[in-house]
Give the backbone structure.
Amino acid sequence: MYLGIDLGGTKIEAAVLDKQGRLLFRERLSTPQGNYEATLDAINVLVAWAESQFGHFDCLGIGTPGAISAKTGLMKNCNSTCLNNQPLLADLQDRLKKMVLLANDADCFTLSEAMDGAARGYNNVFGVILGTGVGGGLVIKQQLIQGVNRIAGEWGHNPMPANVIDQFKPRLCYCGRVNCVETFLSGPGLGRTHAELNRIHHALPDAKLIATQAMTGDESTLRTLKLYSRHLASALANVINILDPDIIVLGGGISNINLVYTHIQRDLQEFVFSDQVLTKIVAPEYGDSSGVRGAAWLSRG
């Protein structure tokens, strides 16, 4: 059996899977906001609950909202900011007295879908998170690839191809760069695109509202989603040109918008350096559950 924990911004969730991927246990606690020590305590409680039912686990997988710095060994790039610059791995191993394996949430999503989700049976899998931010992960032959800098798959902070965004104003990313993929393909990025196209100057519409209006046949939101698909295709083409994955699984809130998939395969053909594009673009099988499932799969060794 495999134990995993998804350390999210609002909830901490634990799950136990058997070797066939069947869910045997699932519990969650609210994430203590801004409190690092309380976060460690919550993880300890969830592990104790799991072990009270299934006995001792030698290894634990944890999905985090950031990554470990190869330079310092401390956490970096976490939107749960209380984790940043903390020795999370060392602290957990000290408290739990077991091997702990960490990966970011996009890596866990990708591993979950590659193991027994929408990408089962494929060798080269790229997973994409399209939500509040944009992230990605790479799994080859069911092995997670994290890279020497622990940033494999971080395509969200590559620049958007300039030829598809020349009608828009420059967008400053929180990372300090301008026109990152995330600034156009995240949920807020989609809202900003719709606002600029339609000269909306008040609060930005969110992705869910845009999708709902598009389903009613609203021309302005349909136009926005069609352009979003082209933007997505242009950015994913860079991934395909480098990695040439068998399949790309989309996750995050925007992956639930069916219209995003309508034009993507055709749009890819415009940007990919090939006479045909055989890469499949698919929705996830496990969706929001992929984070904790992927964390559990981490512990399989």
Summary: The CA atoms of residues 221 and 268 lie 21 Å apart. The first strand starts at residue 2 and ends at 7. The chain is about 35% helix and 20% strand.
